[in-house]
Structure formats: C-alpha cells, structure tokens
Specification:
Blueprint: H1 3-24, H2 30-33, H3 38-51, H4 59-62, E1 69-71, H5 79-83, E2 93-95, H6 108-117, E3 123-125, H7 134-143, E4 149-151, H8 160-169, E5 175-177, H9 185-192, E6 202-204, H10 213-222, E7 228-231, H11 239-244, H12 246-250, E8 256-259
Parallel strand pairs: 1-2, 2-3, 3-4, 4-5, 5-6, 6-7, 7-8
Helix pairs in contact: 1-3, 6-7, 7-8, 8-9, 9-10
C-alpha cells in the first residue's frame, strides 16, 4: 500500500471518529455544527439516526437545504421536528414510522407541515403513526405531486377520505400500504380506479376488517401492472376472491401474493 493510500485511510478514520464523537456530544456543539458542509452533515445525520440521538432539539442544526433522505424511524421526534424541515425543498424520502407499538407524537399537524414544505417528496412512510388522520394524507396527496410510495399501515384512524384524495391526485403512486385502517370498499375502489390505476404495482391492505371481495375485485380489475397484492386477515373476504385471483395467478408478473379466505 502506497503512502497516499495509507494517509487517505487514516484521514477517513479520523474524520469518522470525529463525527461519532460529535454525534455523542451534539448538545454542546450545536452552534459549530451549523457551519459544517452539507456532505459532512449527511454523514453526521446517518450516525445520529443510527444512535437514535437526532431529536426535536438538535434537528434544525444538522439538516440542510440539499437534504434528500431522512429516516427518523429510530429517533425520538414529534411534530416539532417536522416543522423544522421547511427549508428542505429537495427532500424526496421521509420515514417517521415506528417499529413497534404506536408513535403518538406525530400527528396530522406535523404531516401537513412537511407536505406543505417539501413538495418533492416521492416516498413517505408513516407506519404506526396512530394520530395521523385523513387531513394529513389529504395534504400529502394535494401537495406532493410526485408521490410514488406511501405507507400508512396501522395508522388506525385513516378512513376512505384519504384513499379518495390519493385516487384524485397521486398519478405516479406505485406502492400503497393501508393495512389495519378503517377503509372500506368505497375507498379502495376510489383509489384504484383513480389517476394512479395505471401506475400502481403494490397494494397492501391486510388486516382491514371492513373490506370485502369487492375491494379485491376492484384492485384486480383496475391495476394492470400489479405484482404485489397483500390482503390477508380481512375477515369479510370469501371464496369469491380466490376465484377472482385465478387470472392474476396465471400472469407472469406476480411477485408476492398473500390472502386469507374465511
């Protein structure tokens, strides 16, 4: 190994060590963090997210206007953190979902704020955010015109109004998850027969107790590019859905399919 390679690796290790130290002592260096270049801030953000130290108090110091991805799934944040993302106009992905239990600190108010501030969002993950209501999803549908992936699974208070808004506005939507919500056949039909019918490739609607065979048939009839369809543990779905699946199963595009017939 030549001297330059050795020196480069040493510098890289030193820089990483400095960032790790900074992430652990961020509260004492908030003023200095402001002047760090955006490329270095991206690395610092990843370390803080990994350690779960990014929070409402320090997020404004480390984010920057060129930020494109922000996974806050492992962080203790609330609506206050989302309100501080107003300058992140290039943000394309945000994940504020929770791994287990519920995240009650994120509400529709925070989602409305980020939808208004970050119109370039393509991927939004809100799984288990039980205090996010329909108005939050309406804001995403109306403001984030390039939305491709939306996960509102286990957002237990979501109803048909959210799916209506997506069906009317989200023409690039490719993957949608609304598992364990309050939606009905009317909402599902409005979604899959709307402007995203030709783009939808993945639909996850498992554990939705109000859905019937009508929802399954609507998805199969309206989404020609569908290759992932998940609808297990929907107690009102019957043998009729299994029969409707036969043509779908014969196609070569299927990648994943799970269902339960009661």
């Amino acid at each position: 190994m030549c001297f330059c390679e050795t020196l480069f690796k040493s510098v890289k290790l030193y820089c990483n060590g400095c960032l790790i130290f900074l992430s652990k002592n961020i509260s004492e260096c908030l003023h200095e963090v402001k002047i760090i270049p955006s490329e270095v801030k991206d690395k610092l953000i990843k370390i803080m997210i990994w350690n779960g130290t990014l929070n409402d108090q320090n997020i404004s110091q480390v984010i920057h206007s060129r930020l494109q991805m922000l996974n806050l799934q492992n962080c203790n944040i609330s609506d206050e953190a989302l309100r501080q993302l107003g300058n992140c106009k290039q943000l394309k992905m945000i994940n504020v979902g929770f791994r287990s239990g519920e995240r009650v600190s994120i509400t529709s108010a925070g989602i409305i704020s980020i939808a208004s501030s970050c119109p370039s969002l393509k991927e939004v993950y809100l799984e288990r955010c039980s205090n996010v209501l329909d108005e939050g999803i309406l804001a995403i549908a109306r403001n984030c015109k390039h939305l491709q992936i939306l996960n509102i699974g286990r957002c237990s208070n979501i109803t048909d109004s959210a799916l209506y808004a997506l069906g009317q506005n989200s023409c690039f939507l490719q993957s949608v998850k609304f598992s364990a919500t309050k939606v009905t056949d009317d909402g599902v039909t409005a979604l899959v027969s709307g402007v995203c019918s030709q783009s939808l490739k993945e639909v996850y609607m498992d554990r939705c107790v109000n859905l019937t065979d009508g929802s399954v048939e609507a998805v199969l009839n309206c989404c020609p590019k569908l290759h992932i369809f998940i609808f297990h543990e929907c107690p009102l779905i019957t043998e009729r859905s299994r029969e409707a699946l036969y043509p779908f199963l014969r196609s070569n595009q299927i990648k994943q399919l799970t269902w339960t017939v009661y």
